[in-house]
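Lab meeting minutes (informal)
Scribe: AK
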Amino acid sequence: MMRRTMVFLTCTVAGLCLAGVTGFGQSRAKSNKNEVPVPTRPIKIAPVDDKLDEQVRRSAFLIDRMVEANYKKQGVTPNPVASDEVWVRRAYLVATGTIPEYKHARAFIRSRSGDKDQRLIDELLEDPGYASHMYNYWADLLRLSERVTNNVPGRPYIEWVRQCCEENKPYDEFVYEMLAAEGKIWENPAAGYILRDSGMPLDAVNNTVRVFLGTQIGCAQCHDHPFDRWTQKEFYQMAAFTYGTNTRRSAADKMFGGGNVVSRLREELATIDEKYDGGGKYNRFLSGNLMEVHDVNRTLVLPHDYQYDDAKPKSKVETKTIFDPQPVVKPGETPREAMAKWMTSKENPRFTKTIVNRIWKKTFGVGLIEPEDDMRDDTVASNPELMDFLISEMHRLDFDLKEFQRVLYNTKLFRRESTMVEIDLSVPYHFQGPVLRRMTPEQVWDSFITLATKEPNAYQPKPAAIDSNIMTIDLATVSAQEVFDRNNALNESNGYKYRKARDDVYKHEGLLLVRASEQPQPVPPGHFLRQFGQSDRETIQGNFDGGSVPQVLQMFNGPLTHLLLHEKSYLHHNVVTGRSPSDRIETIFLSILSRFPTDEERQVAEDEVRENGPAGYGNVIWSLVNTREFLFVQ
């Protein structure tokens, strides 16, 4: 198979591996007096807790015992233990979102240490790539975007989510801060969650319940749910907790002194700005500062066409959550705050179960409950005893997602070979091993970056978040001159010139060579990531893993594939510095597939090099990145 592929490739990529194109990756543009400084913030990744080592091993043992007991109960034969080559690649992809650098793969495979699995897991969980990969997971789930809503930049919210991943903020705190957030996004970035669905209070309730409680109640917005127990009245009772949450203040609000403050300032700006364009460029300040999460006294009523006999149309709706125990709104507390406390409580029957199931699926490819976001009262996990134990573990760890994943990665289950057949999600899966799955779009991109860049596991510097001192203005007192000056200051620190200077540091022939988490959120249509299924961030978990013709063209002849053969790529450097053809071929296989070649593969590769000279190495590289083995997590 490989021999036929290589023969086909000879005329396609011959000579590319030694192309003399200049400029690559992290080589900075020449400095000059007009160079724009690129501000960064320090990165500090939360470590694992060494005091929990023994408990990690004990918990992993108990998980395996429950899984193995279920094998006997279900008459299931577990998969064999995976090889070091398969496991090290899986561990890197699942924990950090990228394949390992070839030196790391080789060192792990050759190591004879009895605890090398555990030590590698801890290293990966303390690697910046862990935070990057977790950010990608939440970006897809929370629909993170550079623009949250009208004239409100999403960058502060994006950076806050990223920082929560780096600091390993407890999950319950992470969720509570989003649900209870108040203020403007650059003052309180967690407010970006509520601003994301600005103007859609009822849809926002469905999204929140789906993401954090694993249940879909959206159908009950218009009528009793046809397939679940939720009634339309119950939907509205749940929505009543957040219906008083407003995301925008009126430009004519009395707090701004009367009249339309935005219209007044635009008229004044027209007399100051010689290049005045109608005021659109000032919307970040004029309209953006009106976007603020705050609670008002507003009553939710049932629809005028409400048709059920348990209430009258247009009657007032009292607050009530869809699960017990019911929250109590304390004096001085808003209904939204009470709901946020209820939502993230250990007493909430779905909150912990949902995140446990999501992280289990992230680790092994299938949830104990499927679908993961459509749980019902009669839904039963494929292993109920295991689900109960995992919930107790999450509570014991106080919602520490890193330590929870540390436990899962240390199980024998995570060390087993993957199940290679397609899984029927309508039938319970009993976890003979993790399931074979295709890389996410972000894993594919980040793996190419690992192959191409000189420092594949170095975390890229972060741009500074938007300065709240610049963005925040008091519309009641601000002058047009101050708005004009602040707009100029913002352009200096975050305008096109700034962004170009930041991006040029890591660009090569138009490609921004940084991790997917550092790309624009989301990348524009036509980008490699979008072609491979990255979400447009309009729907929850909008990533898809299907194949397409554009993907084939990208892999066959796209700029990222050519980049691997560039003379200054990291992979090229490692290959050409090899001591012999055999050593170079080993480097290629270890770099791309994290394993040594078989005898047959080595012979085919050596024949290719003998027939085509140095270009043969390029053909081998090209062949391997176009294999299914490269694109799948085994």
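Next up, CB showed the second protein from the same session:
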Amino acid sequence: MTKNNPTKLVIVGGVAGGATAAGRARRLDENAEITLLEASGHISFANCGLPYHIGGDIEKREALLLRTPQDFWNRYRIKALVNARVTRVDRTKKIVSYIQDNTPHEIPYDKLILSQGGEPMQPPITGIENIAHFSLRNVEDMDAIIAAIEKSQHRHAAVVGGGFIGIEVAEALRHRDLKVTLVEFAPQVMPNLDREFANLAERELEKNGVKVLTATTIQSAAPGGLITFSNGATETVDFIVFAAGVKPETGLARAMGLEIGKTGGVVVNDFMQTSDADIYAVGDMAEIQNRITHLPARIALAGPANRQGRLAAENALLGNRCRYRGALGSAVIKIFDKTLAFTGLTEKASEQAKIAAQAVTIHGNNHAGYYPGAERITLKLVFSPIDGRILGAQAFGAEGTEKRIDVIATAIIGWLTVDDLAGLDLTYAPPYSAANDLVNIAAFQAMNHRNGFSPVVAPAEFSAKCDAYCVVDVRNPNEIKNFPQASACQISVDTLRENLDKIPKEKPIAILCQSGQRSYIAQRVLKQSGFENVFNICGGYLAVAADQKMELK
């Protein structure tokens, strides 16, 4: 619209997608009248940083407060209102009603962007009123948790939920010297991941003093902080933090009559436009599309929310010209000294979406082994057995873990295959990588599996059907002693050629080493010595131990 007839843009929700939409809108249209309404007391705060201030990694509270309402006005001439709770939207008259300081207000709009995020879920607990309990959604929640820590008597807290926020809060509380019990309803922490990576995460939590209870709930809470679990056990805690996921904040959208999708989010098209052409929705509350499966999805992550907000602002002001193509769900989490990252589809998600998938797992150093400080990274690559297209990846390990996942996320968007991935020209210097990066090596193994040069058996399949294989353990005696695994015979890879007559031939052969590298060499020896149906146990004993939740010394 013109300077004399400016577009009236109202944005409901002032964090992540909403704040990004407001800034983008101003850069696109200097004349637009932009109003940002935020129900909490702060706008544009770093909500992903809240656990790190609780734990002391981010020392200054003000570092999380990226912009104030005055900042928005000074720099963008955007009217940002905090403690402004929207109560109604009249789509016919195009009026937003809200309450601020107990006073009702109304504001007209031409275009409306909803960015209300998600509402933390709180599982039912009998007697929950008997104990202090919190969620972690905004700055006020963070302040309340810090206050509870400072006055805690038992120095013990329970965290409900083993996903991103639950793990981050558990670590933060451990940094504050509290005992922590992490309670997860599902059979594993990080429920969306494949089992072995969830087990690696759980192992790291327990290594750092977090007590992890899976397939468990809190049934009741009694005065004095006594909580009772579904397994009958009890503990006394000072408070509970609920981090059991979020449901989309759709109360306002439902009251307006906007279409709600199968996932519970507000249905949007490729332009982030709702069923009302003048209303857009972004972030945790929006039902978008998974970029691989093309199925409806809600992906509650800050990255997608920010990008959606940017697009929604442009489409609202300039007409629908920017399409949102969906999200992969790429994410990373710090778990004490380790990193867990993933992108695209897991094997579990592939199966649920009825997409044919295979996977390989490798272990390698985050940089050249001869350079000081090298540490292990475990990387799983998921791909299509039909055309070799990359579908997803998961990785756990030291510094540089997320770098590999970012490379693979880019490869997925580019529709690259394992052959393409094998040929990627990635940077190399001893402090950062090896001449063949872990990404390349994972692709090599996937290629070898697909063309039959080195077929693998996945750890989960091996664990389920181990009796169907003749297991040949090619590790050295000390490894076998420290990490025993039932096998038909134990022959070091270096003496394999002299002992071929000792290997049984009645069953398919599965070869085991510690990481999968020596077993690959042994497999090639056997396949070229007349043995058929020889499989490499993918990822070796390290992967089997992770899948079976076995301890490593």
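CB comment: The chain has a mean pLDDT of 95.
No objections, moving on.
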